[in-house]
Hints:
By secondary structure, this protein is an all-alpha fold. 70% of the residues lie in helices and 0% in strands. The chain has three helices and no strands. α1 (7-28) runs parallel beside α3 (85-114). The longest helix is centred in the last third of the chain and has 30 residues, at 85-114.
Amino acid sequence: MALIQNPGFIILLLCGIIFLIAGLIQTKYPPKKINSLYGYRTISSMRSKEAWDFAQKYSAKISIWAGLLMMFFAVTSLQFPNISKEYQVWFSLIIIFSLVGILIFLTEQKLKNFR
């Protein structure tokens, strides 16, 4: 019951699982063609087939790591039960958006050097 009342745990765990599964699916079944529906889609990743293929593999690895980190932070959040639920939500969102930003930044940096 205590886990259900801890929004930081729930948010980070669910997002972590989603990122982990998405990364594993993208690793196993990367999009074959450049498209606007599935995969890591930015201007730099869509400029060539080689860049597209590289971005899919690289961002999938980072997504897996981001998912694992989110799950780690979810478990860690259980160590701070006295933090208000509002702060737990804010901390969770900061962690999630930071990891998404890191994923995009690292992938775009690798794509710049990919040419």
